[in-house]
């Protein structure tokens, strides 16, 4: 490839551009009117305005992106994540236009994009599934009968889509009808598909995902796991690699199951297989994300691999350059997503201007961000400002370094999730590794705990300063006394 267009924006566009520069491949950015002055636009070799601020009029308009690619003689398109990254129709159109999608085939996207078809596909490969049914249910009586057989609590889940939409927890039979109607209504409005299925609710669930890579020559490897259990509204806010609870044996079994999922859909490129891990360390297949993940930096930090470069090489029909036995696991990496959100108000998005934006700098810190000081956070897109990543020789060092990095990260003009990230890093449950996807529900249901933690830290700092000042005064008095005696 000689030229690649990035069909995305923000920090992932900057991330892809960095690798393209390293590989001496020309980059093309597409941007909306809201992103006219964004850093990724100026960092690309060429850039094209594709429409107004709303993504439905710019980043999601396939015709505009394809026209830009054809006008500039682009060889490939990197879709990043979100927007068109898992759109099978877009993948098929690029194939017809003779433009290489840096991602899997449309067939793989379709198969894994529907949770029911994904379950059916992986069943033949002995991949563990959550107890339940792998077909759509529309009749309430049938759904209730299934739930009774499985045993409450159960989850009603939308077949299409993700992000917690169209998902309802049902703890008793009398709530089944209402929750099923709500799940179907939300699924219909969010995905245009009201198909749902019923499965057992896993207690003390941890969200563990396996990064896999496959080429067009039959090779599939896994690049270890990421722990993504700290979530708000079923969306991740903190990730780490590796997990605090996986043993080498369990890691291998989950990795091999993830590779089996990739083989089930004839996968090619970077993909992530998501599992639920219960309190007894049993794991169950959830879904496959057929794209690069937001949290891919923590995997890069512990393996030393450039996942974007690997994507490009696989899309260029090259064989994977490493085998499973070559994959390293070096140290521990932690990632805090820095959102423009008010954690004290149920993580509601906050808009404003980055009056001050100074990033921490250290050898162990990596920051993938989208903004510069003085810029406004647009209301049209995801409110993530940056991904703050730290690496350490072990988990404890990675956590401690994250706390230092958060303290050194200066952002003013709007609220962010930095304080929440620090609260998690210092929490006993997180530091011990004894937590699950209900962390926020259990420990942050009352946001005042953040105020309490900040006040305790303030008092501790004041006490330290008082002690230091008293030591200085005492030393000075001793020096004065010594001079008088002389």
TrEMBL record:
One of its GO terms (molecular function) is ATP binding. This is Acetyl-CoA carboxylase biotin carboxylase subunit. Keywords: ATP-binding, Biotin, Ligase, Magnesium, Metal-binding, Nucleotide-binding. NCBIfam families: PRK08591.1. Residues 119-316 form the ATP-grasp domain. Gene3D superfamilies: ATP-grasp fold, B domain. PANTHER family: CARBOXYLASE:PYRUVATE/ACETYL-COA/PROPIONYL-COA CARBOXYLASE, METHYLCROTONOYL-COA CARBOXYLASE SUBUNIT ALPHA, MITOCHONDRIAL-RELATED. InterPro entries: ATP-grasp, BC-like_N, Biotin_carboxylase_complex, Biotin_carboxylation_dom, Biotin_COase_C, CPAse_ATP-bd, PreATP-grasp_dom_sf, Rudment_hybrid_motif. SMART domains: Biotin_carb_C. Pfam families: Biotin_carb_C (PF02785), Biotin_carb_N (PF00289), CPSase_L_D2 (PF02786). The keyword Glycosyltransferase does not apply. The lineage of its organism: Bacteria, Pseudomonadati, Bacteroidota, Flavobacteriia, Flavobacteriales. Residues 1-445 form the Biotin carboxylation domain.
């Amino acid at each position: 490839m000689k030229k690649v267009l990035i069909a995305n924006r923000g920090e992932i566009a900057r991330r892809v551009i960095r690798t393209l520069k390293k590989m001496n491949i020309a980059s093309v950015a597409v941007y909306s009117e809201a992103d006219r002055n964004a850093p990724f636009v100026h960092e690309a070799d060429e850039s094209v305005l594709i429409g107004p601020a709303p993504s439905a009029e710019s980043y999601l308009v396939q015709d505009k992106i394809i026209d830009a690619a054809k006008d500039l003689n682009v060889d490939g398109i990197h879709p990043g994540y979100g927007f068109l990254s898992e759109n099978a129709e877009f993948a098929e159109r690029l194939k017809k236009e003779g433009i290489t999608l840096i991602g899997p085939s449309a067939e793989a996207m379709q198969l894994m994009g529907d949770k029911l078809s994904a379950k059916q596909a992986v069943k033949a490969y002995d991949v563990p599934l959550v107890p339940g049914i792998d077909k759509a249910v529309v009749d309430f009586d049938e759904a209730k009968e299934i739930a009774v057989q499985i045993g409450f609590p159960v989850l009603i889940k939308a077949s299409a889509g993700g992000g917690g939409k169209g998902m309802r927890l049902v703890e008793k039979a009398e709530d089944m009808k209402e929750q099923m109607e709500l799940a179907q209504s939300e699924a219909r409005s969010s995905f245009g598909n009201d198909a749902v299925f019923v499965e057992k609710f896993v207690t003390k669930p941890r969200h563990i995902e396996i990064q896999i890579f496959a080429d067009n020559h039959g090779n599939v490897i896994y690049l270890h796991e990421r722990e993504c259990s700290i979530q708000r509204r079923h969306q991740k806010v903190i990730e780490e690699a590796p997990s605090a609870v996986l043993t080498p044996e369990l890691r291998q079994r989950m990795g091999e199951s993830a590779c089996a999922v990739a083989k089930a859909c004839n996968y090619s490129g970077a993909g992530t297989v998501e599992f639920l891990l219960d309190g007894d360390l049993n794991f169950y297949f959830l879904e496959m994300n057929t794209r690069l993940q937001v949290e891919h930096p923590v995997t890069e930090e512990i393996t030393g691999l450039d996942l974007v470069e690997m994507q490009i090489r696989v899309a260029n029909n090259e064989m994977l350059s490493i085998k499973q036995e070559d994959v390293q696991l070096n140290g521990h990496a932690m990632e805090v997503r820095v959102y423009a959100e008010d954690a004290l108000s149920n993580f509601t998005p906050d808009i404003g201007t980055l009056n001050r934006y100074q990033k921490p700098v250290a050898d162990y810190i990596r920051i993938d961000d989208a903004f510069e000081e003085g810029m406004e956070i647009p209301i049209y897109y995801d409110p993530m400002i940056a991904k703050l990543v730290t690496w350490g020789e072990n988990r404890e060092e990675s956590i401690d370094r994250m706390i230092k990095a958060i303290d050194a990260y200066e952002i003013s003009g709007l609220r962010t999730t930095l304080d929440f990230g620090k609260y998690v890093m210092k929490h006993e449950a997180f530091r011990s590794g004894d937590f699950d996807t209900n962390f926020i529900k259990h420990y942050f249901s009352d946001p005042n705990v953040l105020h309490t933690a900040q006040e305790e830290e303030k008092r501790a700092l004041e006490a330290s300063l008082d002690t230091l000042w008293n030591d200085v005064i005492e030393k000075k008095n001793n020096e004065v006394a010594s001079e008088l005696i002389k």
